[in-house]
Amino acid sequence: MYGTSASTLEAKVVILGSQGVGKTSIVVRYINKTFSPNSTSTIGASFMTKKLTVDDCKVRLQIWDTAGQERFRAMAPMYYRGAHAALLVYDITSQESFEELTSWIEELKRNMTEDLVIVVVANKLDLAPLRREVPYDDAQQFITRALGPDTLLYEVSAKDDNGTIEEIFVHIGRILVDRKQYIPVRKPITYLPMDEEPQPPKSPCCGF
User: Fold this and answer.
1) Which NCBIfam families match (predicted)?
2) 8-179 is a CATH 3.90.1170.50 domain
3) For residues 142 and 2, what is the distance between their CA atoms, to the nearest angstrom?
4) pTM for the whole structure
5) I need a labelling partner for 76 at 20 to 30 A (CA). Which of 21, 70, 85, 208 fits?
């Protein structure tokens, strides 16, 4: 346990997965509590922050939402390098997006340390009754084999969220607090495939 409420932890969380699985929608649902059916594809990566309190420790998550298009795949290491947690996202109505998790898992195992917190998220649960292609039990068995029995699988709907998405990030924050990983505050940099140097989006909920 931490001695004072002034304890702080800053952690980098990266969101990975195929194009169209709803990575941006998950982040926007968590940060802004909203959903837009017409969100555009992410270019390179976008950056947001969210603060929460876990066991009297102030946690600020740096959330990196990465592009899913194949043409940006080579840039992925720039975004997940230095991450403390990763959300691997697939579309519950797309077997292909689920199968592509294998390459992400292999890449993270090659390039990241074993203490990286990985959570698997199946999005578009609202479409599951009619369009599900990935059975929960099959997904859980694969994740247990590939990542171990302690890795959690969440089925969520960024459209009709009932609080589960927030639970995911609280879970990550709790693991990191329990590990007492105090991370120095770093100035975030967003890398995009263009000349200009964009600024992270600002909102009243971001930063301390």
Assistant:
1) small_GTP
2) no
3) 36
4) 0.78
5) 208
